[in-house]
Amino acid sequence: MKKRLLCLSLALVSQGSLASPWIDAGDTQLKNSIDLLVSYGVIHHPVNQYPLMWQGIASDLVDIDRATLPQEVMFALQHVEHSLRVAKLKRDSGVRAYYSSDAKLTQGFAPRDKAKAGLDTYGLMTSENVSAKVQVNYQRDGLDDKTTNYDGSHLAVLFDNWAVSAERLSYWWIKQ
After folding, report:
1. Residue 112: is it exposed, middle or buried by C-beta count within 10 angstroms (0-12/13-18/19+)?
2. What backbone torsions phi and psi does residue 146 show, to the nearest 5 degrees?
3. Exposed, middle or buried: residue 10 (CB in 10 Å: 0-12, 13-18, 19+)?
4. 114-to-73, 95, 102, 162 alpha-carbon distances in Å
5. Under 8 Å between Cβ of 154 and 172
6. For residues 54 and 52, what is the distance between their CA atoms, to the nearest angstrom?
7. How far apart are alpha carbons 147 and 143 in whole angstroms?
8. Does the model's pTM come out above 0.90?
């Protein structure tokens, strides 16, 4: 009963949601495009922090002399601009399922599949200065013996160029 109520609440929350102010840390192709734009001087804001916010990158993309950019840089620019448009969509919610014959702990910033099978669901709401994401993850035969966790959830308040947040991150170590 609790699980049904939680899923129903998540579905209702996700109906009127907006996109996240952060770039998905697991999107290595987007990060590569951003790094190429930094190398060519198109993006001037620092991009070596985590989490990386869209705010600085979006402001750098406003006045660009496209005529002087090589073809591969134009492709990277179009990739970043498309990703920014997607990030500005008014709704964001999703479901991700996975299965593996062995539970293993991967390295990196992408979601960690630390169980043999699992289902991750999320709903995201963002206003002008506040972002909230509720993520509920179910797993079977996990490395940490948990069946439910909230890794990936956050509540953040933006103040100009600053963000104050409370987050539930997936940890890389396993509690014994």
Report:
1. buried
2. -100, 145
3. middle
4. 37, 17, 9, 32
5. no
6. 7
7. 10
8. no
Residue 17: per-residue pLDDT: 33
Amino acid, res. 22: W
Task: Return the ∠ at Cα 148 (arms to 92 and 112), rounded to 5°.
Answer: 65
Compute the distance between CA of residue 5 and CA of residue 38 in angstroms, rounded to an integer: 46
Give residue 11's region: left, alpha or beta (phi > 0; psi -120 to 50). alpha
Where residue 118 falls among pLDDT bands split at 50, 70, 90?
Answer: confident
Give the C-alpha separation, 174 to 144, whole Å.
6
Q: Over the stretch 48-107, which tens digit does the pLDDT of each residue have? A: 877 788 888 999 998 888 999 999 999 999 999 999 988 877 568 889 888 877 666 655
Helix axes 71-87, 28-39, angle to 10 degrees: 130
